[in-house]
């Protein structure tokens, strides 16, 4: 396709190069040479200030002596038919010669013009080529969009590759069918939504789903990321949007996918200084979406993990009016995602994917893909031909807590403190009623900072958490510090993370979940970005904020006391398990519970009242 913008830029560059060469040629001669009059030339000769003379066809080149005042310049003067000159030069003993004329104008042109221009052109290509790459677009092709054209065999994804997102797939099946056969819908007069917005936390498979839709429908897939539109120059983003839609219309039926649309689709009001570029881009997108005829079979998919910041105009009917939630997978979903990724991995007989799925509440597809890969790497490291359950379990821990740090040596004293701390968590968890069972306790340090940790796993997927459960969670979190106080009567820095999490939970009980009498069911905070780890925003007066702190502190104090009491009342068990942990460094849930149960049967333990 002939692109006139490109042509214009090429021309401007070419003219620039010619001017530059002219200038350089001129400068290089005017700095180093000087024309003098014939009289002056004769005067210099007579004063014996000339060293050498070259007679050319139309000029005489003069090399003056250093004391002539022209030391650094090549002098020249016009050639005259002067019969006396030869005599004069001979008498003054000046070396002179007549140059054999080099009358090849072609050579001159090549030397002074063609060669420099070629060099400049090569240089220009090089420089602009680099810029092109950097900006993902092109200086030579301003505004020309770079939407990659993915043919169906290139996305290579189908719905089979996306696991655990059954509802999302269901609502996209219709779009696939529409792309297969737009006429069927047109004949009845049914209009399909122009666009669907995939919404969910990072790593849940939104991008993957969009590719799968294109793969299933066997249509071209134009994908661009929102940040691609935000250009160096104002107006470029808008022109990219325009180009993208022109290209897509030519290829219909097809899919346009705009990943991370929040980069351009951010709400226009509410920001203090406007962003012209983004606004123009967004306006262009809205105009294009309104303008094109959806019966041709162009479907626009977009993905975001921050739906709440999107401009309302984007969500109006006729635009992204269909919302597809791509949320964190549940237990069953996690298991099927693991199955998808483990397809090509050789497995040992002991592998139990459902137990891995149980051990990874909250993990998204990207995490699970990562876990499978880590496990395979570990199997290779241990020179095994198959992946075993232990590889998978270690991989889960690596994703959660970082790699084992074998080279970190704790002093015996520190090791004791860490062991009692972890057993503190575990024992409080085991002796309270509304807690998840302990899966593992370890005091092997990990790279992500933990000196040890206690892993609890829910027996079943929970969607609602009761007030009692939250209080017990806080008590378990504070069990570590409580243990240090009960056993050593010291407090260390090891509990900072526990304290932070406990405080957050307690605060959210007060401000978000309406679990205190003082504030009843008043929402005092709202969470900004639900799908990211958004910080809650307080919406209350300063006086209320102080009261919130008071309430939060009250909860924490109560839970702290309770943890201390549990450990004091069961001191023999607490000490015994801690000693075993120091010995073994890692205790599995069953081993731990065996000791707890044995103790319970022996000496009727003090039952904590709730
Ligand atoms: P998002 O766009 O939501 O941030 P991606 O689609 O980029 O997430 O997912 C990243 C990777 O994680 C995918 O390439 C895939 O390997 C894996 N993944 C994520 N979700 C799923 C899923 N539901 N099923 C299978 N694999 C998944
Ligand atoms: Mg993505
Ligand atoms: Zn702790």
CATH superfamily of the largest domain: Peptidase M41
Q: What ligand species are in this complex?
A: adenosine-5'-diphosphate, magnesium ion, zinc ion
Q: Which shape, going by the Cα principal axes?
A: elongated
- Mean pLDDT rating: 82
Number of strands: 16
End-to-end Cα distance, whole Å, is 77 Å
Main sheet specs = 6 strands, mixed
Number of helices: 22
Write out the strand line-up for the largest beta sheet, numbering strands in chain order: 6-8-9-10-7-11
Report Rg: 39 Å
Q: Quick one: CATH class of the largest domain?
A: Mainly Alpha
- Portion of residues in helices? 40-55%
**What's the number of domains?**
4
- By CATH, the topology of the largest domain is Methane Monooxygenase Hydroxylase, Chain G, domain 1
Parts with pLDDT < 50 across at least 5 consecutive residues: 132-145, 149-153
Secondary-structure-derived class: alpha/beta
Proportion in β-strands: 5-15%
CATH 2nd-level architecture of the largest domain:
Up-down Bundle
Structural notes for this entry:
It is a single chain. The chain has 610 residues and is of the alpha/beta class. It folds into four domains: 4-105, Signal recognition particle alu RNA binding heterodimer, srp9/1 (2-Layer Sandwich), CATH 3.30.720; 148-269 and 276-325, 3-Layer(aba) Sandwich (Rossmann fold); 331-401, Helicase, Ruva Protein, domain 3, CATH 1.10.8.60; 412-603, Peptidase M41 (Methane Monooxygenase Hydroxylase, Chain G, domain 1), CATH 1.20.58.760. The protein has helices at residues 4-32, 38-46, 83-91, 105-134, 152-155, 166-180, 182-188, 206-217, 226-229, 236-251, 262-265, 276-291, 331-342, 353-358, 365-381, 389-401, 412-431, 467-488, 496-511, 542-569, 571-584, 589-602; strands at residues 33-35, 50-55, 59-64, 74-78, 95-98, 148-150, 195-199, 221-225, 254-259, 298-304, 322-325, 438-442, 453-456, 525-527, 536-538, 586-588. The longest helix has 30 residues, at 105-134. The radius of gyration is 39 Å and the shape is elongated. Magnesium ion binds at residues 206-207, 259, 303.
